[in-house]
C-alpha cells in the first residue's frame, strides 16, 4: 500500500456523468491487482472529510486509470479536476479477483452493470494475458450508460452489451443476457461488479448452473483500511455468518460466502 499525496492527473475524459481519469502514480500502478481499489481525497480542503473508494480500472508502470459516475458531492468535485492537478490517494487496497496462471485455457464471463464495469477492464486484460478466454457482459439502463464499449472493442476483448431500454445490444437486463449465454456455453468462472440487485440475481443464476462466481461488493467506506467498521457486510466465515469489513477482507468475495440483503 502506498500513500501518494503527489499523484498527478495526466488526462480526463467524460461521457455525460461518466468520467475516466489517467493518473501518474507509479508505485500504486506497479502494485495494483484487478479488483483492488484506491481511496481518493477528492477536495483540496477539509470538505468532504472522507476519502472516496474507487476501483482500479487499469494499471501499469506509470500509474492507474479510474472510471466513475458522478453520484454525489465527492465524485462531482473529482470530475472538475484538470490535467496537471495533483491528487492525494492511498492504494492499492483490498483483495481483488482471483487471477492465476492455472486458469490458462479456461473460460471466464465478466459481468458489469453501469459503473460496476470499472474494475473489469483491468481484470479482462490480466486474464487475457494468462490465456483465459474472456467474454465481458456490459449492461446499462440505456446506451449512454455503457460508454466504455469502444475501449473494450479496441482492446480486442469479446464484448456483449445490453440496455434495459433496448437502445443498444440485447434489450433487457444484463442478467438475462448472461442467462441466455449460460444456456449455450458454461464458463469456468464468473466475475461480477454492479448494483446489489444485479449481483444477487447473478449469484442465483451462477448457482443454478453450477458455475463458481466472484463478486466485488460496494459499501460506504470511511477509511478503506479496516479502522472504522463503516463498510461491513454479512459474509459467511468459518465461524458462521458475521459482519465483515469488506475493505479489508474484500471487496471481492466468492458468491457462496455472501449473504445478500433481502
Ligand atoms: C470498493 C469500492 C469501489 C468502488 N469503485 C467505484 C468505481 O470504480 N466507480 C464508481 O463510479 N464508483 C465506485 N464506487 C462507489 C463510489 O465510491 C461512490 O459512488 C462514491 O463514494 C460516492 O461519493 P460521492 O461523494 O460522490 O457521493 P455521496 O454524496 O457520498 O453519496 C451520494 C449517494 O451515493 C451513495 N453512496 C455513497 N458512497 C457509496 C458507495 N460506496 N456505494 C454505493 N453508494 C454509495 C450515498 O448513499 C448517496 O445516496 C466504489 C465503491 C467501493 C466501496
Ligand atoms: S472502510 Fe473503514 S473499516 Fe472498512
Features:
alpha/beta; Elongation Factor Tu (Ef-tu), domain 3; Rossmann fold; 2 domains; 7-stranded mixed beta sheet; binds flavin-adenine dinucleotide
Give an overview of the whole structure:
The protein has 2 domains: about 1-95, Beta Barrel (Elongation Factor Tu (Ef-tu), domain 3); about 100-215, Nucleotide-binding domain of ferredoxin-NADP reductase (FNR) module (Rossmann fold, 3-Layer(aba) Sandwich), CATH 3.40.50.80. Helix content is about 20%, strand content about 35%. It has 7 helices and 16 strands. The chain has helices at about 25-30, 75-80, 120-130, 150-155, 175-185, 195-210, 245-250; strands spanning about 1-15, 20-25, 35-40, 50-55, 60, 65-70, 85-95, 105-115, 135-140, 160-165, 170, 190-195, 215, 230-235, 240-245, 250-255. It has a 7-stranded antiparallel β-sheet with strand order 4-3-7-1-2-6-5. Strands 11-10-9-8-12-13-16 form a 7-stranded mixed β-sheet, with helices on both faces. Strand 9, helix 4 (about 150-155) and strand 10 form a beta-alpha-beta unit. Helix 5 (about 175-185) runs parallel beside helix 6. The model has no long low-confidence stretch (mean pLDDT about 95). Flavin-adenine dinucleotide binds near residues 72, 75 and 220.
Amino acid at each position: 500500500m502506498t500513500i501518494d499525496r503527489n499523484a498527478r492527473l495526466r488526462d480526463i475524459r467524460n461521457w455525460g456523468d461518466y468520467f475516466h481519469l489517467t493518473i501518474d502514480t507509479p508505485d500504486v500502478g506497479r502494485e495494483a491487482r484487478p479488483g483492488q481499489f484506491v481511496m481518493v481525497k477528492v477536495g483540496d480542503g477539509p470538505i468532504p472529510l472522507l476519502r472516496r473508494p474507487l476501483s482500479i480500472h487499469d494499471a501499469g508502470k506509470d500509474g492507474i486509470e479510474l472510471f466513475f459516475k458522478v453520484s454525489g458531492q465527492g465524485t462531482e468535485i473529482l470530475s472538475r479536476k484538470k490535467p496537471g492537478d495533483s491528487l492525494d490517494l492511498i492504494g492499492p487496497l483490498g483483495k481483488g479477483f482471483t487471477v492465476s496462471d492455472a486458469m490458462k485455457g479456461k473460460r471466464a464471463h465478466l459481468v458489469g452493470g453501469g459503473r460496476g464495469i470499472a474494475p473489469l477492464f483491468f481484470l479482462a486484460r490480466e486474464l487475457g494475458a494468462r490465456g483465459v478466454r474472456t467474454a465481458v457482459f456490459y449492461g446499462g439502463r440505456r446506451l449512454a450508460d455503457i460508454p466504455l464499449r469502444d475501449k473494450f472493442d479496441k482492446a480486442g476483448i469479446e464484448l456483449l452489451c445490453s440496455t434495459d431500454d433496448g437502445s443498444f445490444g440485447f434489450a433487457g437486463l444484463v442478467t438475462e443476457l448472461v442467462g441466455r449465454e449460460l444456456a449455450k456455453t458454461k464458463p469456468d468462472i464468473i466475475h461480477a461488479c454492479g448494483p446489489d440487485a444485479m449481483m444477487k440475481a447473478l449469484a442465483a443464476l451462477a448457482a443454478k448452473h453450477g458455475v463458481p462466481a466472484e463478486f466485488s461488493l460496494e459499501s460506504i467506506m470511511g477509511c478503506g483500511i479496516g479502522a472504522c467498521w463503516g463498510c461491513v457486510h454479512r459474509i459467511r466465515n468459518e465461524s458462521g455468518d458475521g459482519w465483515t469489513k469488506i475493505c479489508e477482507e474484500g471487496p471481492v468475495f466468492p458468491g457462496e460466502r455472501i449473504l445478500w440483503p433481502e
